[in-house]
Amino acid sequence: MDRNSVTGFLLLVLLLVGYIAYNNYSQSKFEEAKKADSVANAKAHPKPLAKDTAVAQIAPATTEVAAINDSIEMAKPPAYRGEEKTVVLENKDLAVAFTTKGAHPVSALLKNYKTYSGEPLYLFDGDYNKLSVLLPVDNGKSATADLYYTTEETTDPSGNKTIVFTADMGSGKIAKLSYSLPAEGYMLQCNISLAGMAATNLPVTWQTEALHTERDIKTERTNSQIYYNFTDGDEDYFSFINTQKESLDKSAKWLGFRLHFFATALVPEDGLNRVNIEGTVGNENDSFVARNTNTFELPVKTAQNPTAGLRMYIGPNHYTTLRSYKIGLEEMVPLGYGPMFFVKYINKWLIIPIFNMLSSFISNFGIIIMLMTVIIRLLLSFFTYKSYLSSAKMRVLKPEMDQLRAQYGDDQQKFGMEQMKLYRQAGVNPLGGCLPTLLQLPILFAMFYFFPSSIELRQESFLWADDLSTYDSIVSWGGNIPVLTSIYGNHVSLFTILMTISSLFLALYNRNMTPQDPNNPVLKYLPFIFPFMLLGVFNKMAAALTFYYFFSNMLSILQQFIIQKYVIDEKAIHAKIQENKNKPATASKWQQKLEEMQKAQVERAKQQPVRKKK
Q: What fold, for 80-333?
């Protein structure tokens, strides 16, 4: 190769090396510019990566963006960043789960109870449940439910457990919520304290979504109610009908959300102001029973760095348990209200003490119901005897009454006067058979409220009834049968059938033993119609109630047979009446008043002009 060829070859090599070096330099500048554009675009339009491909798709530019975002996130106060977790506070009876985002209960497990299907009983569970305090920062836009909290758990020597939730909002602002549970029981203590903030009261939102726990969700929804007790001692409630709203016009001592057998209630230390209540029941396809949403203002102890305390009851509607707190929570057990409000005192002072005494040493609640019925019958035996004695006297006087009726015919006023005269001479009180019966009616009404409200009977079996707190069923069917389903239901309660049959037999027995007034034929057949009228109502009632009425009817029949067969002597009664007739009779004030009214009616009748027939 000559010199010119070598020189040309070397020039080509130099040109090639220069081209490669220049190309590498240009590519490097291009990559740097592209990287800068990617960072700017990522800041303006951040896009999350799918979890399963995140690691594979992270490029050097994305890693840098993530680092920048992390640094920005870490610059926020701890209350505005974090990871939501669940912590549980529990004791012997109750387990309450809290979220670290919001520091409020999200579920409550009642350890000593099961649902009707045998599952663990959660009174509420889910994101809907909330207890949130509106904070006096950011123009009222921040709430405790929006913050993240750190937690600290402690247990004292007596077994009380506490979880403290702390949210640091920066600039010296700290929200702290602490919850405590005793070693046993259903009362949760909550203390709220704020630092670096000032307020005279704290607006609070309380939401609860109650879950289905019993046999019949329709019955649960019917029993969904809001109770409230005012600071002046007054009390009231309302039942949910679709969606119900109410604003209280005065401060409340406590506020309760009652279901059939369980309840949640808020009990503040210093009352609740400006209370607004909203309750709604679920639709047919909803899994929950009812929801309540309440807002109110919670008074604080000091305006600067305010603190407030309240308690939350989460547990059964057990009368004795609720009464032990001595704040009136037992009013959530419906023992009598409305026109029958007075029977709740019979339940409180008579029925419940007898029931508790018997259940302290007898475990079978069917036997307890029978013993209660016997005890109540014995307590009322004096009035029962007086009623049967009065009926016997009326039977003895029946021949003379028939004679008077034949003598005076259609002259009812004259007949009434002679009838009262005969009663006075014989020493018979015409109301003697009615008053003792009326005195027994409050007991029947008291039982009507007591048995369906007694959580002690829940899931207790007797004979063919597997749960005395709900209806027994020997036959059931699906679907909706027009009229029949709405009135009677989709099942047959055997206790209700037996109650109806025994009521008819008792009515027949009483008709044969009691003189009938021919002028009131309706009264003659009403006792036979009434049991059929109540058949559809009691078919859906608690088995304990229908069994009580059935057994009470059977005792009445037996008691009436024994008294009339072996205790009351109608011959002796007749002789006594004849003896009384020979004594000077002194009319009672009531008889005197009645006779005066009858005489006045007779005089008015005489003064009326007689219309001549055309």
A: Beta-galactosidase; Chain A, domain 5 (2.70.98)
